[in-house]
Design goal:
Length: 189
């Protein structure tokens, strides 16, 4: 029996960068479009909560397709809307569970933020419904908790640093970080 090696943050970043470099203009353009749409829709109460999860899933879809060698277009940003109901229900449930965890004792809430990290990926990649995706994400990340937490901390530092020059660095940092997260997901699934 062969033992699966969990990649470290550096490997995920390197692989994520290689994935990003295949279509940097398209992935950065999709990130800008996502930000503009969410910014405009966010002016309407609660509308942002209905648009952001499918658009984020669409950006993941672009990354997944790119990794599979498929051609991607900007229209793939809207692929997540095919999974609208499970994405929205998962988003609502995760928000409720995380809020309760944060309210009760902060650490359970932080734990849930981390272990639900693959939920959208599971819905878009494996076409799972909301609850099986949440549970699969929780179990998978729990089994690789510390490695994944280190990756998240590194990605958080990258995004904070990228946001310093008026947020312009996020145009590259967001798709890079999502690609690195996806590479970790692929390595452990």
């Amino acid at each position: 029996m062969t033992e699966r090696v969990v990649p470290d943050a550096g490997v995920c970043l390197r692989d994520g960068w290689a994935l990003y470099k295949q279509e940097p203009w398209l992935l950065s353009g999709a990130t800008i479009l996502l930000g503009v749409i969410c910014g405009v829709v966010g002016l309407i109460p609660f509308a942002g909560a209905l648009v952001y999860p499918p658009l984020l899933a669409g950006l993941y879809s672009m990354i997944i397709r790119l990794e599979r060698g498929e051609t991607i277009t900007i229209s793939n940003l809207f692929d997540g809307f095919q999974f609208f109901v499970p994405l929205i229900i998962a988003s609502i449930l995760m928000s409720i569970f995380i809020s309760i965890g944060l309210f009760l004792l902060v650490l359970p809430g932080l734990y849930l933020v981390i272990v639900y990290g693959f939920t959208n990926l599971m819905i878009i990649d494996k076409k799972m419904d909301f609850w099986p995706a949440m549970e699969a994400s929780r179990k998978l990340i729990h089994a690789n908790f510390w490695s994944y937490t280190v990756l998240l901390l590194v990605l958080m530092v990258i995004c904070v640093a990228a946001s310093i020059p008026m947020g312009l660095g996020l145009i590259v940092a967001v798709p890079l970080c999502l690609s690195a997260q996806y590479r970790f997901y692929r390595a452990v699934t």
